[in-house]
Amino acid sequence: MRPNIRQIEAFNAVVKCGSVTRAAEDLFVSQPAVTKLIRAFEDACGFPLFIRESGRLRPTPEARRLYLETEKLLLGVAQIDRVAKSIRNLEEGEITVVAFPALSMRLLPKSSARFLAKRPQVRLSVMTRTSPSIPDGMLTGKADFGMSLLKTPGAGLECQPFGECSMVVALPANHPLTAKAVIDMNDLKSDRLISLGRDDLSAQVIEQAFIHAKEEYNPAVQVQMADSACTFVAEGQGIALVPSLCTVGWSPDHVQFRPITPAIKTPMWLYTSSSEPMSELAKELLAQIRSSVEEVENSFALPLELA
Do the strands 121-128 and 157-172 form a parallel or antiparallel pair, or are they unpaired? Predict the structure, then answer.
Protein backbone atom coordinates (compact mmCIF):
# COMPACT_ATOMS: atom_id res chain seq x y z
CA MET A 1 0.00 0.00 0.00
CA ARG A 2 1.28 3.44 -0.90
CA PRO A 3 1.92 5.97 1.87
CA ASN A 4 -0.37 9.00 2.04
CA ILE A 5 0.26 12.66 2.83
CA ARG A 6 -0.89 12.36 6.46
CA GLN A 7 1.60 9.55 7.07
CA ILE A 8 4.40 11.59 5.50
CA GLU A 9 3.46 14.64 7.58
CA ALA A 10 3.57 12.54 10.76
CA PHE A 11 6.94 11.04 9.78
CA ASN A 12 8.47 14.47 9.09
CA ALA A 13 7.09 15.90 12.33
CA VAL A 14 8.59 13.07 14.39
CA VAL A 15 11.98 13.44 12.66
CA LYS A 16 12.01 17.18 13.37
CA CYS A 17 10.64 16.99 16.94
CA GLY A 18 12.38 13.81 18.11
CA SER A 19 9.26 12.54 19.92
CA VAL A 20 5.69 11.49 19.21
CA THR A 21 4.38 13.86 21.91
CA ARG A 22 5.81 17.01 20.39
CA ALA A 23 4.94 15.85 16.85
CA ALA A 24 1.32 15.37 17.95
CA GLU A 25 1.26 18.90 19.37
CA ASP A 26 2.62 20.35 16.12
CA LEU A 27 0.07 18.44 14.07
CA PHE A 28 -2.82 19.13 16.47
CA VAL A 29 -3.68 15.44 16.74
CA SER A 30 -3.45 12.82 19.50
CA GLN A 31 -0.30 10.80 20.25
CA PRO A 32 -1.99 7.49 19.36
CA ALA A 33 -2.95 8.96 15.99
CA VAL A 34 0.69 9.89 15.25
CA THR A 35 1.88 6.42 16.38
CA LYS A 36 -0.69 4.77 14.10
CA LEU A 37 0.39 6.95 11.14
CA ILE A 38 4.09 6.13 11.71
CA ARG A 39 3.40 2.39 11.85
CA ALA A 40 1.39 2.56 8.66
CA PHE A 41 4.18 4.51 6.98
CA GLU A 42 6.75 1.93 8.09
CA ASP A 43 4.56 -0.85 6.68
CA ALA A 44 4.30 1.01 3.38
CA CYS A 45 8.07 1.58 3.24
CA GLY A 46 8.95 -1.96 4.32
CA PHE A 47 11.73 -1.08 6.79
CA PRO A 48 12.06 0.39 10.32
CA LEU A 49 12.13 4.19 10.53
CA PHE A 50 12.98 4.93 14.19
CA ILE A 51 15.02 3.53 17.06
CA ARG A 52 13.90 4.42 20.59
CA GLU A 53 16.79 5.73 22.74
CA SER A 54 16.44 7.33 26.20
CA GLY A 55 12.78 8.15 25.63
CA ARG A 56 13.41 9.74 22.21
CA LEU A 57 13.00 8.41 18.69
CA ARG A 58 16.16 8.43 16.59
CA PRO A 59 15.68 8.12 12.82
CA THR A 60 17.42 5.20 11.18
CA PRO A 61 19.89 5.97 8.35
CA GLU A 62 17.21 4.85 5.91
CA ALA A 63 14.72 7.24 7.52
CA ARG A 64 17.14 10.17 7.25
CA ARG A 65 17.62 9.51 3.56
CA LEU A 66 13.88 9.22 3.10
CA TYR A 67 13.33 12.44 5.06
CA LEU A 68 15.22 14.46 2.42
CA GLU A 69 12.68 13.37 -0.18
CA THR A 70 9.58 13.71 1.98
CA GLU A 71 10.62 17.23 2.96
CA LYS A 72 10.79 18.19 -0.73
CA LEU A 73 7.35 16.68 -1.24
CA LEU A 74 5.76 18.60 1.63
CA LEU A 75 7.37 21.83 0.47
CA GLY A 76 5.87 21.18 -2.96
CA VAL A 77 2.46 20.53 -1.42
CA ALA A 78 2.74 23.77 0.56
CA GLN A 79 3.61 25.62 -2.65
CA ILE A 80 0.61 24.11 -4.43
CA ASP A 81 -1.61 25.17 -1.55
CA ARG A 82 -0.18 28.71 -1.68
CA VAL A 83 -0.73 29.00 -5.44
CA ALA A 84 -4.25 27.57 -5.16
CA LYS A 85 -5.04 30.10 -2.44
CA SER A 86 -3.67 32.95 -4.57
CA ILE A 87 -5.74 31.84 -7.55
CA ARG A 88 -8.82 31.44 -5.37
CA ASN A 89 -8.34 34.94 -3.95
CA LEU A 90 -7.64 36.39 -7.44
CA GLU A 91 -4.11 37.33 -6.41
CA GLU A 92 -2.08 35.44 -9.03
CA GLY A 93 -2.34 34.63 -12.72
CA GLU A 94 -1.95 36.02 -16.23
CA ILE A 95 -4.33 38.19 -18.28
CA THR A 96 -4.05 39.30 -21.90
CA VAL A 97 -6.28 42.06 -23.28
CA VAL A 98 -6.56 43.44 -26.80
CA ALA A 99 -8.31 46.79 -27.31
CA PHE A 100 -8.71 49.69 -29.74
CA PRO A 101 -6.31 52.64 -29.27
CA ALA A 102 -8.70 55.17 -27.68
CA LEU A 103 -9.28 52.70 -24.85
CA SER A 104 -5.88 51.03 -24.56
CA MET A 105 -3.76 54.21 -24.53
CA ARG A 106 -5.11 55.86 -21.35
CA LEU A 107 -8.24 54.57 -19.61
CA LEU A 108 -7.36 50.87 -19.74
CA PRO A 109 -3.84 51.31 -18.26
CA LYS A 110 -5.12 53.63 -15.55
CA SER A 111 -7.97 51.29 -14.62
CA SER A 112 -5.71 48.24 -14.78
CA ALA A 113 -3.12 49.95 -12.58
CA ARG A 114 -5.66 50.17 -9.75
CA PHE A 115 -6.46 46.49 -10.29
CA LEU A 116 -2.78 45.45 -10.27
CA ALA A 117 -1.94 47.56 -7.22
CA LYS A 118 -3.86 45.04 -5.11
CA ARG A 119 -2.48 42.04 -7.01
CA PRO A 120 1.30 42.41 -7.50
CA GLN A 121 1.63 38.75 -8.57
CA VAL A 122 -0.69 39.17 -11.58
CA ARG A 123 0.96 39.52 -14.99
CA LEU A 124 -0.90 41.64 -17.55
CA SER A 125 -0.36 42.00 -21.30
CA VAL A 126 -2.17 44.77 -23.21
CA MET A 127 -2.22 44.68 -27.02
CA THR A 128 -3.31 47.73 -29.01
CA ARG A 129 -5.05 46.98 -32.32
CA THR A 130 -7.38 48.84 -34.66
CA SER A 131 -10.99 47.73 -34.30
CA PRO A 132 -11.02 45.60 -37.50
CA SER A 133 -7.94 43.77 -36.19
CA ILE A 134 -9.35 42.91 -32.75
CA PRO A 135 -10.68 39.43 -33.71
CA ASP A 136 -7.32 38.46 -35.21
CA GLY A 137 -5.55 39.84 -32.14
CA MET A 138 -7.84 37.76 -29.93
CA LEU A 139 -6.96 34.55 -31.74
CA THR A 140 -3.25 35.06 -32.42
CA GLY A 141 -2.54 36.67 -29.06
CA LYS A 142 -4.71 34.20 -27.14
CA ALA A 143 -6.30 37.14 -25.33
CA ASP A 144 -8.77 36.64 -22.50
CA PHE A 145 -10.99 39.34 -23.94
CA GLY A 146 -10.96 42.10 -26.51
CA MET A 147 -12.79 45.40 -26.97
CA SER A 148 -13.61 46.96 -30.31
CA LEU A 149 -15.73 49.66 -31.96
CA LEU A 150 -16.67 47.17 -34.67
CA LYS A 151 -18.77 44.03 -34.53
CA THR A 152 -17.05 41.43 -36.68
CA PRO A 153 -18.32 37.86 -36.21
CA GLY A 154 -15.51 35.34 -36.34
CA ALA A 155 -14.99 31.62 -35.83
CA GLY A 156 -14.18 30.74 -32.24
CA LEU A 157 -15.29 34.12 -30.87
CA GLU A 158 -18.36 35.57 -29.22
CA CYS A 159 -19.19 39.25 -29.67
CA GLN A 160 -21.62 41.13 -27.44
CA PRO A 161 -22.40 44.80 -26.67
CA PHE A 162 -20.07 46.38 -24.12
CA GLY A 163 -21.49 49.90 -24.00
CA GLU A 164 -21.26 53.17 -25.88
CA CYS A 165 -18.47 55.68 -26.32
CA SER A 166 -19.36 59.35 -26.67
CA MET A 167 -17.48 61.84 -28.78
CA VAL A 168 -16.49 64.98 -26.86
CA VAL A 169 -14.95 68.29 -27.87
CA ALA A 170 -11.30 68.86 -26.98
CA LEU A 171 -10.54 72.58 -26.50
CA PRO A 172 -7.37 74.55 -25.74
CA ALA A 173 -7.46 75.66 -22.10
CA ASN A 174 -7.90 79.34 -23.03
CA HIS A 175 -10.56 78.79 -25.72
CA PRO A 176 -13.76 80.90 -25.33
CA LEU A 177 -15.95 77.78 -25.63
CA THR A 178 -14.60 76.46 -22.32
CA ALA A 179 -17.09 78.85 -20.70
CA LYS A 180 -19.89 76.61 -21.96
CA ALA A 181 -20.90 73.39 -20.18
CA VAL A 182 -22.16 71.82 -23.42
CA ILE A 183 -20.97 72.58 -26.95
CA ASP A 184 -23.36 72.71 -29.90
CA MET A 185 -22.22 71.49 -33.32
CA ASN A 186 -22.94 74.98 -34.66
CA ASP A 187 -20.37 76.39 -32.22
CA LEU A 188 -17.57 74.66 -34.14
CA LYS A 189 -18.02 76.32 -37.53
CA SER A 190 -15.34 79.00 -37.07
CA ASP A 191 -12.57 76.85 -35.55
CA ARG A 192 -9.71 74.93 -37.13
CA LEU A 193 -10.57 71.27 -36.90
CA ILE A 194 -8.11 68.54 -35.98
CA SER A 195 -9.48 65.22 -37.15
CA LEU A 196 -8.73 61.54 -36.89
CA GLY A 197 -7.82 59.76 -40.11
CA ARG A 198 -10.66 58.64 -42.35
CA ASP A 199 -9.87 54.97 -41.64
CA ASP A 200 -10.73 55.49 -37.99
CA LEU A 201 -14.29 54.43 -37.14
CA SER A 202 -14.70 57.43 -34.83
CA ALA A 203 -13.76 59.78 -37.66
CA GLN A 204 -16.48 58.31 -39.87
CA VAL A 205 -19.09 58.94 -37.16
CA ILE A 206 -17.83 62.51 -36.63
CA GLU A 207 -17.92 63.29 -40.37
CA GLN A 208 -21.52 62.08 -40.54
CA ALA A 209 -22.39 64.33 -37.57
CA PHE A 210 -21.01 67.38 -39.42
CA ILE A 211 -22.99 66.46 -42.51
CA HIS A 212 -26.16 66.00 -40.47
CA ALA A 213 -25.64 69.41 -38.81
CA LYS A 214 -25.06 70.93 -42.28
CA GLU A 215 -21.64 72.16 -41.20
CA GLU A 216 -18.55 72.06 -43.40
CA TYR A 217 -16.20 69.21 -42.59
CA ASN A 218 -12.76 70.46 -43.61
CA PRO A 219 -10.04 69.32 -41.15
CA ALA A 220 -6.89 71.40 -40.99
CA VAL A 221 -4.92 68.54 -39.45
CA GLN A 222 -5.47 64.79 -39.65
CA VAL A 223 -3.86 62.33 -37.24
CA GLN A 224 -4.10 58.60 -36.58
CA MET A 225 -4.50 58.67 -32.79
CA ALA A 226 -6.89 60.62 -30.58
CA ASP A 227 -3.98 61.31 -28.23
CA SER A 228 -2.18 63.07 -31.08
CA ALA A 229 -5.27 65.16 -31.76
CA CYS A 230 -5.41 66.22 -28.12
CA THR A 231 -1.73 67.17 -28.21
CA PHE A 232 -2.35 69.45 -31.21
CA VAL A 233 -5.27 70.97 -29.29
CA ALA A 234 -3.09 71.55 -26.23
CA GLU A 235 -0.61 73.35 -28.50
CA GLY A 236 -3.36 75.72 -29.65
CA GLN A 237 -3.64 74.36 -33.19
CA GLY A 238 -7.41 73.98 -33.16
CA ILE A 239 -10.18 71.88 -31.64
CA ALA A 240 -10.99 68.19 -32.03
CA LEU A 241 -13.78 65.70 -31.50
CA VAL A 242 -12.35 62.68 -29.71
CA PRO A 243 -13.66 59.61 -27.87
CA SER A 244 -14.44 60.24 -24.22
CA LEU A 245 -12.16 57.32 -23.28
CA CYS A 246 -9.04 59.26 -24.28
CA THR A 247 -9.77 62.22 -21.97
CA VAL A 248 -8.28 60.53 -18.90
CA GLY A 249 -5.14 62.10 -17.45
CA TRP A 250 -5.03 65.37 -19.38
CA SER A 251 -4.38 68.49 -17.34
CA PRO A 252 -7.17 71.13 -17.62
CA ASP A 253 -4.35 73.66 -17.88
CA HIS A 254 -3.52 72.20 -21.31
CA VAL A 255 -6.76 70.84 -22.78
CA GLN A 256 -10.37 70.77 -21.64
CA PHE A 257 -13.20 68.53 -22.74
CA ARG A 258 -16.90 69.23 -23.13
CA PRO A 259 -19.89 67.11 -24.19
CA ILE A 260 -21.48 67.95 -27.52
CA THR A 261 -25.06 68.17 -28.72
CA PRO A 262 -26.52 66.47 -30.64
CA ALA A 263 -24.78 63.55 -28.94
CA ILE A 264 -22.37 61.52 -31.08
CA LYS A 265 -21.96 57.95 -29.88
CA THR A 266 -20.34 54.78 -31.16
CA PRO A 267 -21.11 51.28 -29.82
CA MET A 268 -18.37 49.22 -28.17
CA TRP A 269 -18.19 45.46 -28.48
CA LEU A 270 -16.72 42.82 -26.19
CA TYR A 271 -14.99 39.79 -27.71
CA THR A 272 -14.49 36.55 -25.78
CA SER A 273 -13.60 32.99 -26.68
CA SER A 274 -16.54 30.76 -27.55
CA SER A 275 -14.64 27.61 -26.57
CA GLU A 276 -12.82 28.55 -23.37
CA PRO A 277 -14.44 30.17 -20.30
CA MET A 278 -12.91 33.40 -19.05
CA SER A 279 -10.91 33.10 -15.83
CA GLU A 280 -12.32 34.67 -12.68
CA LEU A 281 -9.28 36.95 -12.59
CA ALA A 282 -9.98 38.22 -16.13
CA LYS A 283 -13.64 38.73 -15.22
CA GLU A 284 -12.57 40.85 -12.26
CA LEU A 285 -10.37 43.04 -14.48
CA LEU A 286 -13.14 43.34 -17.08
CA ALA A 287 -15.54 44.51 -14.37
CA GLN A 288 -12.97 47.11 -13.27
CA ILE A 289 -12.59 48.39 -16.85
CA ARG A 290 -16.36 48.48 -17.36
CA SER A 291 -16.76 50.54 -14.19
CA SER A 292 -14.08 52.98 -15.36
CA VAL A 293 -15.71 53.34 -18.79
CA GLU A 294 -19.10 54.04 -17.20
CA GLU A 295 -17.53 56.60 -14.86
CA VAL A 296 -16.01 58.52 -17.79
CA GLU A 297 -19.21 58.29 -19.85
CA ASN A 298 -21.30 59.56 -16.94
CA SER A 299 -19.01 62.55 -16.53
CA PHE A 300 -19.94 63.67 -20.07
CA ALA A 301 -23.65 62.83 -19.90
CA LEU A 302 -25.84 65.54 -21.41
CA PRO A 303 -28.50 67.27 -19.30
CA LEU A 304 -31.90 65.58 -19.68
CA GLU A 305 -33.29 68.44 -21.75
CA LEU A 306 -30.48 68.01 -24.29
CA ALA A 307 -30.11 64.22 -24.25
Answer: unpaired
H helix count then E strand count, the chain: 10, 12
The CATH number assigned to the domain holding 49 equals 1.10.10.10
97, containing H or E segment:
strand 92-99
pLDDT digits (tens, 9 = 90+) for 4-59: 889 888 888 888 888 888 888 888 899 899 889 989 988 888 888 888 877 678 88
pLDDT band at 88 (very low <50, low <70, confident <90, very high): low
Closest among 76, 79, 73, 82 to 3, alpha carbons compared: 73
Kindly report the CATH number assigned to the domain that includes residue 107: 3.40.190.10
Confirm whether 118 is domain-assigned.
yes
Residue 307 lies in a domain: no
**8 A C-beta contact, residue 272 and residue 158:** yes
Contact 146, 164 (CB under 8 A): no
Report the predicted TM-score, pTM, of the whole model to 2 decimal places.
0.70
Whether 247 and 121 map to the same domain: the answer is no
Q: What is the pLDDT of residues 141-166, one digit of tens each?
A: 789 999 999 888 777 899 999 999 99
Q: Is the C-alpha dihedral spanning 107, 108, 109, 115 positive or negative? A: positive
Structural domain range at position 125:
92-162+269-299
266 close to 165: Cβ distance less than 8 angstroms: yes
